[in-house]
Amino acid sequence: MGKVCAIVLAGGRGTRMGSCLSKQFIKVNDKPLLYYTLKTFTQCNFIDEIILVLPKSEIEFCKSEVLDKFSITVSKIVEGGSERQDSVYNGLKVLENCDIVLIHDGARPFVSKRIIEDGVHFARKYGAAAPGVTPKDTIKIKGEAGFSQNTPDRRTLCAVQTPQCFRYETIIRCHENISKEGITVTDDTMAIEIFGEKVYLYEGEYTNLKVTTPEDLILAEKLSKEYCIK
């Protein structure tokens, strides 16, 4: 089996949190959100290498307030780009002899080992995979005038999470192409779908939430107290 690498993106701002601190450094139960994310990956036997992608201005802060303070080791720290896809591409370019790569949002602090291990398995089997959950709410397609146009069957919908998992040769090729062609994507599954690749969607978890708003912190506080990794 080839090497399995994880890219953790830690470039989120605290704008919607109403915080001047980047959200991955906001503390929950006395630990930064990024602590929980990194701890799971470092303790997962499936992961051989971790690349942490950060804004240049926050690298030293992260070293002192997360990595050194909580004795967390990553393989490399890479400077992020202006957009999320640029940060991913920067992380992909430093990998060597990588077979499978997992790309994860640093602001999803409660990803489980099961999700990570399943992602590696399905990426090897299908080439690309991502966890997801069925939306709890009914989803409406909204027209330009503001009226509902139709209601998709919720059973066919999937709210996609991370880590998004790929054969390295596939995802790096697609990122090279979108960079050359100036294509904007909202996540990495979209980057490969544009070029005709398929993504296998496997079962995620509702607790694998992306912390984005102050309301998310309420649930994050509860989850952190139940978190099994110390």
Keywords:
8-stranded mixed beta sheet, Spore Coat Polysaccharide Biosynthesis Protein SpsA, Chain A, 22% strand, 230 residues, two-stranded antiparallel ribbon, 33% helix, single chain, alpha/beta, 7 helices, 12 strands
Condensed summary:
Belongs to the IspD/TarI cytidylyltransferase family. IspD subfamily. Helix content is 33%, strand content 22%. The protein is of the alpha/beta class.
Task: Please explain how this structure is put together.
The chain has 230 residues and is an alpha/beta fold. The chain is built from 7 helices and 12 strands. It has a single domain (3-226), classed as Spore Coat Polysaccharide Biosynthesis Protein SpsA, Chain A. The strands form 3 sheets. Strands 1, 4, 5, 6, 7, 10, 11 and 12 form an 8-stranded mixed beta sheet that branches. A two-stranded antiparallel sheet has the order 2-3. Strand 8 (141-142) and strand 9 form a beta hairpin. Helix 3 crosses helix 5 (168-181).
